[in-house]
Amino acid sequence: MPESRPLILSVPSECSYLPVIRAFVEAACRVARCDEKFTQGLTLAVHEAVSNVICHAHRGRPEARLHVEYHTSSEAIEVQIHDEGEPFDVCAAPHRDPGELRIGGRGIFLMRALVDELMCCPRSTGGNILRLVKRRRRSEPSQSDAD
To answer: Is 57 helix (H, G, I), strand (E, B) or coil?
Structure first.
């Protein structure tokens, strides 16, 4: 999918870095000429994904690193989140009823609603790569169209 070299951000696994990650995704979307609605949806999905990595995959281990890679093409934007957690199959996560009254458990539902593809695969070095893909709409120019 990637047409250009990815932008990469590496941070400690701490909630205090969530604003940095959000700003990174927002800025990358601006450079890729994504519209505001697209940018907000992707940024929210990445925020939720990183929150889940910090709370569940890394379980409060700030020494663990997480890497956010932003890939762009004329068809889609792909964000990959590399973690150091135990293997996790996002496809096996239950599809919860959003109307169900319960605390928590809405993150994957939200990510699925905001992006076109959500998948997770194990890294050969340990940990996971969570991939969030959001396809561009026809009316939205890509960075390569502008060049």
So the answer is: helix
**Tokens found for residue 74:** 């004329």
DSSP reduced 3-state for 72: strand
pTM of the full structure: 0.84
CATH code for residues 7-146: 3.30.565.10
Taking only the tens place, the pLDDT of each residue in 49-102 is: 999 999 888 987 889 999 999 999 999 999 999 999 888 777 666 666 666 655
What sign for the dihedral angle of Cα 122, 125, 126, 131? negative
Cα angle vertex 75, ends 70, 79, to 5°?
Answer: 20
Query: What are the sequence ranges of the domains in the chain?
Result: 7-146
Q: List all residues 6 or more positions away from 13 whose beta carbon is below 8 Å from its beta carbon.
A: 53, 54, 58, 61, 62, 63, 64, 65, 66, 83, 84
Compute CA 57 distance to the chain's CA centroid, rounded to the nearest angstrom. 14
